Amino acid sequence: MYLADSDGGASAEVLARKKRLGGASQISLDKYPRVIYAVDVTLDRVIKLARKPRNRELASVWRKSLDADIAYSQEVGPVLASAGIQGLLFRSTIGTSMNLIVFLDNCDSSQLKVCQLDETIDTFKLIVSRPKA
To answer: Chain-centre distance of CA 23, in angstroms?
Structure first.
């Protein structure tokens, strides 16, 4: 699960990914359909790479993971997950927000709580149940 610390941060990450995949952002932020939830997270085993680590090996991983070519960072994730790490906290390379990768297989349901999920589902049900004009 990929989380950002704000709506703006999440939107910037999505647009940057779309640009990477398509060569240019195919849609403007104000027209991009999205549903954003607040998620309460309580994790025990988190690696924090918000600042350059003092450890030389970790600093090397940190530097390589910031590369615009995301291949290296995509290789790091499975290694962390297999080591039982629950999350990886890092600064966005495209803005000032913080991002959190959560390795769901290493968490139990009590550690992640989507806020206002029931209210959002009820709203969607109400919208789709309205008669068509």
So the answer is: 21
